[in-house]
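In this supplementary section we document a worked example of the pipeline. Step one takes a protein sequence of length 395 as its only input; no multiple sequence alignment statistics are reported here. Step two produces a three-dimensional model, which step three serialises into structure tokens for compact storage. The input and output of this example are shown verbatim.
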Amino acid sequence: AEPETPKTEETPKIEAETEADGDGPTKEEEEEATNIVKVLTETKVEGGKKGLLAMTKETFGMADGGSKKKTDVIVDTLEECLTKVKELAEAEKKLCSDDRWDFPCTPKDLYESNDDIINAFCMWAKSDPEEKKVEFNVSKAFRRLNSYVGWMYANRKDLDPAIMKLDSPGIVKAAKAWGMKLTTDGKNRMVWWWDFGAVDHEAIVQKKTVTPADTLRFVTVVSHVVMMDKDAQENGIYFCQAFKNVGFMKMFKYVPMEIGAKLDRLTIGVLPVKMKVICLLQAGRWIKIIMGIMRPFMSKKMRSRIVIVGNRQDPQEMLDKEFGREYIPKTFGGLEGDVTTDLVAEKILIHFKEEEAASEAPTESISEAEPPATDPAPEAEATKEEPKKGEAEAK
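The serialised model returned by step three reads:
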């Protein structure tokens, strides 16, 4: 299901993005903005089929599932919604020549029946709490489900059912290297913590014992943990990311553009996950530039959910006020917190074995199998031979 084309407006100038800081852009910053736009425009993803900028705009346009249509089917209960979406899925399955509607790549460890998967989409299509009447949009739920089925099937070569398991070595290694955490706060809201200060640079960038393919699988599995969580279904999710001032091009050494585009589409445009707030800490200026480019293509609701904590703000004070220190992971973003365990540790890292990780050879990297058509910068060019080196060391 293609997203509706949002009404466009003039792309905000860089000056507008710096008003909160009280400073105008320097010549160097204007050049940085020009370079970022150039990279986003020229870089191709999906095997060269789409430009990264065009795909990112499309993804942000899908964030809220599009506006409610006059022809949408609305029901009053979750049971009614589940029944009707199942009927639509069965009808679609009969017209399909493959097994995508059997959800072959969805991690089997996380659900008991296909009803559990469809239920998550029905909950996503539930009316917002501020609305007076509780109702479920059957059509909206099915449009999202159809997008999900299409995305999972399109990436089936990388999401092999045999390795889409919580205890798969590549996924466990990636969980250890990325250091992501999933917690629930005092208001029963799920919080996804992603701290670049906790990332194992050696494993992901230098030796590449954790490949982009491992990262894709790991984030897909974590996304499904969120998707199937009852608190997340009911109350939504808060996403907190501490960048540790990682630069624009360095970011793509951690997450290649091809993988980043896939994961953006999954987490923002495909999964039945209600992102209540996206909080970005310790972010370089490039984040504001990208948000300025994307702003016209986001809904008003989506724009209001993105919070960029500036250098003049105290991130500790903000997180303490929002969640309470007792619900912040220990050392997240170099800050103080009391939480020492989480769902990633309980479901995935419990399978981590140091000696097996050390001997495990890296799996094929997606970035090697499907390189972007346009090399974005000399910095990326210098890393082309690193995967081969990492493979040789592992062997």
